[in-house]
Each structure stands twice: as C-alpha cells, then as structure tokens.
C-alpha cells in the first residue's frame, strides 16, 4: 500500500553478472541515491542478491564484497530499507548504520536458516511481504502461506 511518495531504486546486485562491472555499478548507485528525494518521499532499494544474509552463502566472498561496496553507500544516503531475494527464507537485519536489510526469497525450495550478529529475524518459511508506505513510517509485514504473521517491523522517518 502506498500512502506516501516512494522512490524505488532497483539495482543489479547479482555477483555473477556484475563481475567486472562493480566499479561502474557502484558509481551509478552512489549517483542515483545522491539525487534528492521528492518532498516526503521514502527511498527503498531492491536487489536480487542480499548484502546481509545469515543464510548458507552469507559469508561468501561475493556477498562480503557486495556488502563492503554498497552498505556504506546505503548508509551515507540514509536509505531506510533494502529488499533482496536469492536466499530461500525470510531474514531481517537489525538496523546496520540506519539501514534495515530484508531478504524475502521463500517462494522456492526452503533452506535452513542461521543467525549472525546483525540478524533480527531469520526463519525458513514460505511467505510474502506486505509493505505499507505512509508519510511518516514504513510498515513491513512477513505473512506465511497460512496467513500468520511471521515478522513485522516499522521504520519511522528520522527527525
């Protein structure tokens, strides 16, 4: 539900595709996020591979490289929410330098979940995300296939 202006920035974070293009992609991302938001708008980034993952590949060199390149950019531009897929579970980070990272990839074969120091929630369950954007807050809910609430988080606008 969109009850307020939203800017969605899709970015190609697939390690196998951007290999050799990381510098150009990183520079583009930094420029794109430097553009001022429309008044009252929220900026949300969407990407395929997660920068923060407590899943099986969470400590792979490609994931750590993506995190090292892009997490500082997300933080510098005060992006409140980064959505990713790829990992077959639901994960939400504790805010990392003000950014909440959510992995939602549980429509395929589920994978076991793990936990890292940055992990707030990690669960191996089929689900979908319901994101409500309001002028003063973002409300994110993960709902399982039986309609039960798996996770919820509210991000308020910094003052």
UniProtKB/TrEMBL annotation:
Name recorded for this polypeptide: Calcineurin-like phosphoesterase domain-containing protein
Cited InterPro entries: Metallo-depent_PP-like
Organism whose genome encodes this protein: Pseudonocardia hydrocarbonoxydans
């Amino acid at each position: 539900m969109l009850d307020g202006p939203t800017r969605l920035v899709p970015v190609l974070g697939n390690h196998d595709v951007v290999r050799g293009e990381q510098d150009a992609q990183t520079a583009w991302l930094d420029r794109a996020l430097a553009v001022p938001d429309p008044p009252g708008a929220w900026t949300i980034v969407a990407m395929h591979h997660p920068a923060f993952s407590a899943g099986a590949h969470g400590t792979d060199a490609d994931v750590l490289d993506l995190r090292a390149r892009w997490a500082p950019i997300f933080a510098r531009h005060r992006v409140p929410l980064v959505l990713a897929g790829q990992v077959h579970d639901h994960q939400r980070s504790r805010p990392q330098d003000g950014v909440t990272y959510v992995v939602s990839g549980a429509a395929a074969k589920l994978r076991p979940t793990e936990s890292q120091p940055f992990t707030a929630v990690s669960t191996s369950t089929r689900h979908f995300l319901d994101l409500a954007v309001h002028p003063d807050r973002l409300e994110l809910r993960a709902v399982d296939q039986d309609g039960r609430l798996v996770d919820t988080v509210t991000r308020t606008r910094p003052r």
